[in-house]
Amino acid sequence: MTLILVRHAESTGNSGGTIQGWTDTELTEVGRAQAVAVAQRLAAMSPVAIYSSPLARARETADAVAQVSGLAAVELDDLRERYYGQAQGLTWTEASVRWPAQAAHDRDWATAVPDVESLAALRARAVAVVSGLMNQHRDDVAVCVSHGGTLVQVIAHLFGLPVDVWPRIRMSNTSVTIVEGPAEQPLVRTLNDICHLEDRERASTLAL
User: Fold this and answer.
1) What are the angstrom distances between the C-alpha of 63 and each of 15, 54, 57, 145?
2) Model confidence pLDDT, tens digit, residues 102-123
3) Domain boundaries, the chain
């Protein structure tokens, strides 16, 4: 089987540099063009199913893929981004001022944020749904549209990284990561591929 993991296209939160988490934000005009580009690329791989986070930025991306492929996207709650508690809606600069001791991307700075979802909880729910899809689609191709923080934890699991190690993995907007397997023996064939985009630098935002 082949499971294609896709990060959503550029959102208004990405372009504004805000911490989105479970906050609903729509795609920008650039993001809509990115979604069309990745949809056209994935249509050639003949997916039989499209799964999506219910958050608008992921669902809008998934709908673009589904439309080109002649499918309907199925929402799965556990594909949502990490819940960032009181940091949601703040810019990264505002968060670094409010929680200065943790404001670094090389560790889990969000541990200082009240009500934040733990990385262990995020990884557990995301890995469970992705593993289930890998086993469900053993003989075909499926697409899974999610979020940067969520997909990083899935990939860290696939690489065998412990949950307390901060994964140094970048997930670009509409990046394509291809995983083959069953879930018990997954193989990452492609990681963070954005060859379908013209402006690849813009797609590489870290905003979650």
Assistant:
1) 21, 11, 10, 10
2) 555 556 778 889 999 999 999 9
3) 2-204
